[in-house]
UniProtKB/TrEMBL annotation:
Transmembrane region(s): none
Residues in the DNA-binding region annotation: 37-56
Signal peptide feature range: none
The protein's name: TetR/AcrR family transcriptional regulator
Molecular function in Gene Ontology: DNA-binding transcription factor activity; transcription cis-regulatory region binding
Domain HTH tetR-type: start-end pairs: 14-74
Origin species: Hwanghaeella grinnelliae
Length: 219
């Protein structure tokens, strides 16, 4: 699958590229992946079908671009918070008394991002189409969950060095942290049993998740 590199396009083509992505995202959310056609995307975007195909080889490439954009936004927001956490941890010389609070802030940010209704709807589509288009599933895993755990594992490894946590495998511990924070609320969101949580609810859920994590890994 190919998608034209955005930065390589002239300004007018960039506008069309963004219009195509925006139109496709609207249609995917309104009707699902299967019923959405490239003809419908072209009509919604106000461009020709030929223009759509000049930017995206196929519908899968178009959806992959939308998925990558979602993962990029999530990853950047998480990395921003982890950078703040790492800056504090790098100056510490012993067990970090601020770690629990930092993890709670991270948990709140993570929950807020994955509870967004648009992202929840896109995630449903990814799950539904992954069996037919395994490449979509693989790319989502690489750009989303795997990247998040790699980002977090660096911080957890540092906390192990400081003696705040006792961790043999920082990457596995990162998976545990994300699971403890998001479950079961994310599953309930996906199957329609949960409305978007309030910030108060998110804070309470994050605190409980961090408490569970620290019971396992805190020194």
């Amino acid at each position: 699958m190919f998608a034209t590199e955005f930065n390589d396009l002239p300004p007018r083509s960039q506008e069309k590229h963004l219009a195509i992505i925006d139109a496709a995202k609207q249609l995917f959310l309104e009707t699902g992946f299967g019923p959405t056609s490239m003809d419908a995307v072209a009509e919604r975007a106000g461009v020709s079908k030929r223009t759509v195909y000049s930017h995206f080889e196929c519908k899968e490439a178009l959806f992959d671009s939308i998925m990558s954009q979602m993962c990029s936004v999530l990853g950047a927001a998480i990395q921003e918070q982890i950078d703040v956490m790492m800056a504090k941890a790098e100056t510490a010389t012993g067990p970090d008394p601020e770690m629990a609070e930092m993890l709670q802030v991270l948990g709140c940010r993570f929950l807020t991002l994955i509870s967004d209704q648009t992202d929840v709807a896109l995630f449903r589509i990814i799950i539904g189409e992954a069996s037919r288009f395994p490449q979509l599933g693989r790319e989502f895993f690489e750009k989303g969950p795997k990247k998040l755990t790699e980002q977090l594992s660096v911080y957890l490894a540092r906390q192990h060095e400081l003696g705040t946590l006792d961790i043999d495998d920082p990457n596995q511990a990162a998976w545990h942290f994300l699971a403890m924070v998001k479950d079961p609320i994310h599953l309930k969101l996906l199957i329609g049993l949960q409305d978007t949580p309030s910030q108060k609810e998110i804070k309470e859920i994050a605190e409980k998740g961090v408490d569970r994590f620290l019971k396992i890994y805190a020194v």
